[in-house]
Amino acid sequence: MTTPTQPRPSRHDRLRPLEFVVMAAIVAVFVGLVVLLTTREPILALVFFGVAFIVSLVVLAMLSLAVKPTEAEKTDLDEQNHEGQNGR
Q1: Mean pLDDT score, 20-31
Q2: pLDDT in tens, 30-72
Q3: How far is it, in rounded angstroms, from Cα 54 to Cα 35?
């Protein structure tokens, strides 16, 4: 028996998590550089870099969860839910 092929996610869907990580890294590099240039202490700059990366990543993820899905996304989610209930 042949198995039904799952629709492949689009390139945008596959790269979306990477976009969040890159945006968080940009914010963290900015914060790290500002701390390094003002205090001249690399260890303190690394700590601020890490904290800024984690905080900005969490904030971006929470903001993305707050976005209301479009009709196409709702339809796609409903189709996936029905596939999961049928045992596929």
Answers
A1: 97
A2: 999 999 999 999 999 999 999 999 999 999 999 988 988 788 8
A3: 16
pLDDT of residue 84: 64
Q: Which residues of 18-39 are buried (b: 16+ CB within 10 A; e: fewer)?
A: eebeeebeebbeebbeebbeee
How many angstroms separate the Cα of 84 from the Cα of each of 7, 79, 80, 87?
14, 9, 6, 6
Look at the block and give the residue holding tokens 């914010």: 27
- Which DSSP symbol is given to 67? S
Largest CA distance in the chain: 66
- Consecutive H or E run containing 69: none
Residue 39: both structure tokens together? 């205090």
| Residue 85 near residue 75, CB atoms below 8 Å | no
pLDDT of residue 24: 97
